Amino acid sequence: MSTNVVLIPGDGIGPEVAQAARRVIDATGADINWTTRHAGEAALAHGEASLLPQATLDLISECGVALKGPCTTPIGTGFRSVNVSLRKSLDLYAAVRPIRSMANVRTRYENVDLVIVRENTEGLYGGIESEITKGVCTSTKVTTEAASRRIAEYAFRYCRDRGRRKLSVFHKANIMKFTDGMFIRCAREVHDANYRDIAFEEVIIDAGCMRMVQDPTRFDVILAENLYGDIMSDLCAGLVGGLGVTPGANIGEKGAVFEAVHGSAPDIAGKGVANPLALVMSGVMMLNWLSTSRNNPHLRACADRIRRAYDSALNDGATTRDLGGTLGTMEFAEALVSRMG
Q1: The whole model's pTM is what?
Q2: 86 FRET partner, CA 20 to 30 A, in 119, 255, 292, 312?
Q3: Where exactly does CATH 3.40.50 map onto the chain?
């Protein structure tokens, strides 16, 4: 049975890594019906009037799933993040970022295997900012009980479904007693009501960062509000080799968008040297999610084939330049395809 998926190539290196990821996914025999739509600067380049066209949002809502390359976000000025707008528009409230050590990717740490679950719709990323007088700006952090409870429920359910042993909620409730205080209270109440089989701890985020770089293996699943979760995701990616080897998912009640969380790297766009592994790995997450949500076990088998292929390639040293190898973007994709038999 064919599955409809929206492909959003993105900006910069996005089209290159998206082409490579699609090549790998198609080679598994997964019956995916791809439809390309644009977002970000690429949308304007393709004649759209908006950075996030309504037609793109409508098709994702209709299909219920998308695979997305990186979209450029200007720093300090310019338009609002397309990624944030996409998540809020589709109510993709749970950002899930697995972090695990990869074969032959040398870092300071070994045997890292943790997951960041991030509330994806509230907090300071709501974009409620203003200049109240010249030289004085404010940014409002919004936290609701409904969203805090919803993400806590998702995180604990994720732990149980995947056999994870512990959930650590990162916070700054010693200072932000109302917003972060409510966030950890909701997590505590959800734990006590339905998930006492899962170990639970509350960790002040600055102390948690120190503990993370001392020994990341002491953590399993980390739950955090929007800003903290974003920062922790990148910090933890650095433990295993960077954003080029970490996937990402944005999940809601009615659908999901899977994406590479690295930047659009315009300095190397069009050169065929970008590492597509993060988007390939995000594609694996997508296939697993589809297997469950669409009751299609074949897609899980396809995901397993890709995972074995990139583990094998990394173990053999068949990597792109950023990981010390020599392969180009599509050469790496073909290296994975050749290892799928």
Answers
A1: 0.94
A2: 292
A3: 121-240
